[in-house]
Amino acid sequence: MKEQLILDVLPVVPPRFDNFVTGRNGETVSRLLAVAAGQSIYLWGEHGSGKTHLLRAATRQHGLYLNTATDILPDPGEPVAPGSIIAVDDVHNLSEAQAAALFGLFNQWKTSQHTPEAFTLLASGPCAPRQLEIREDLRTRLAWDLVYRLETLTDDERRSALLQRASDKGIPLSAEVTNWMFNYYARDMSALSSLLDALDRYSLAEKRSITVPLLKSYLQSRHS
Question: Which GO terms describe its biological process (predicted)?
Answer without folding.
Answer: DNA replication initiation; negative regulation of DNA-templated DNA replication initiation
